[in-house]
Amino acid sequence: MKNYKLWRLNLGWQIFIGLIAGVVLGVVFYNNSTAITAMQNIGTMFINLIQMIVLPIVVSCLTVGIANMGDVRKLGRVGGKTLIYFEIMTTIAIILGLLVGNVFHPGSYIDVHQLHSQNIDQYVQTAKKAKESGIWATIVGIIPTNIFKALSSGEMLPIVFFSVFFGLGTASLGEKGKIIIDFLRAVSEVMFKITNWVMRVAPLGVCALIGTTVAQLGLSALAPLGYFIILAYATMIIFIVFVMGGVAHLFGINNWNLLKVIKDEMVLAFSTASSEAVLPKIIDKMDRFGVSQGIVSFVIPTGYTFNLDGSAIYQSLAALFLAQAYGIHLSVSQQLTLVLVLMITSKGMAGVPGASFVVLLATISSIGVPLQGLTFIAGIDRLVDMGRTVVNVAGNSLAAVIIGKSEKEFDQAKNLQYLQTLSLDNKRN
Fold first, then answer.
1. Which keywords belong to this entry (predicted)?
2. According to the model, what pLDDT value does residue 1 have?
3. Of 46, 389, 17, 24, which Cα lies nearest the Cα of 214?
4. In whole angstroms, what is the distance from residue 141 CA to residue 297 CA?
5. How far apart are CA 61 and CA 83, in angstroms?
6. How far apart are CA 77 and CA 176, in angstroms?
7. Domains in the chain, CATH or no CATH each
8. pTM greater than 0.70 (yes/no)
9. Which phi and psi (to 5°) does residue 291 adopt?
10. Is the Cβ–Cβ distance between 118 and 383 less than 8 Å?
């Protein structure tokens, strides 16, 4: 029994092994359509399992949390703080991407004529539709005309909007509303139990998803754009360590402790390039970390649209990279215009498929970069997407803790107890 415990690996290590195995399988089955299809289907089934449990958790946790909060003015204050915080962090991320691009000039070392282009037709159509509707369509779309339609299509903001009002309505019923709260609390507990079951197959899902990416791209395709990929990841690390670390310090939060708590989810987010894959576990862990359920359930799902720090870094760095590759010099005023454009478009298109790439499509024309320029980095978009997803997940986790602390909805004793429990578990493993 002791030997079994000694060799038992925690989820993070299992996912990491799955990631390495996926790279090996991708190399072995490079351009093998049969193997790619098989791995793609296995990966899709894993993502579908996660998506199956995301919305019930968001609805149940958010409704219960808002019902317990029960104060419209407090909710308005929390919402205002959250959106202001998101906008500040996203703007910092955009500026950081531009600063790094200006200092290291990644596009200056690229010959666009030697790069292989990729088909981006699917993104072009999405970009046209998103640009035509703009940010006002996003604002109007927050209010669902049919909540069941929003649930079936997985539209996060309309679901959050409905859950907030449903929670407030439940709270207004007083004693009569307790039966709804008890029911939804039980639903959330059931869904978290199912989440734990689904996580047992996460290594297999990760292996399949990584294997598909490597088998489709091939390692040799990365060489010409290797410098850009390395620079993008370095910038994201700088943001997590220094920017997030500095902000966390201002609010008396130990950023390293937070990162240790969500390390398994960061590995999973990296491997799947999907924020949704970790949403249930992040909500659960931030609750255990000491943030009140109401704050966690509101901040994190909202952040999936408004607080995409990793995506913001990528968009600004990629835009400057392409401008440099085409020999287009951008003045300070042009770069400031790019910041403003990205601030608007990133919010207006966050809910569409391939949002980061779609934002680039909608903005590069403003700096004179030809549309075909994006075809050269389309092939590595998935690889960079893995890194920016990690930043998005870490940023939303920190946001929940910061808003919780600012509202005095952070339980320090619960936090210390949870950290001690995790420390003991790590020693046993």
1. Cell membrane, Membrane, Symport, Transmembrane, Transmembrane helix, Transport
2. 43
3. 24
4. 20
5. 20
6. 27
7. 2-428 (1.10.3860.10)
8. yes
9. -85, 140
10. no
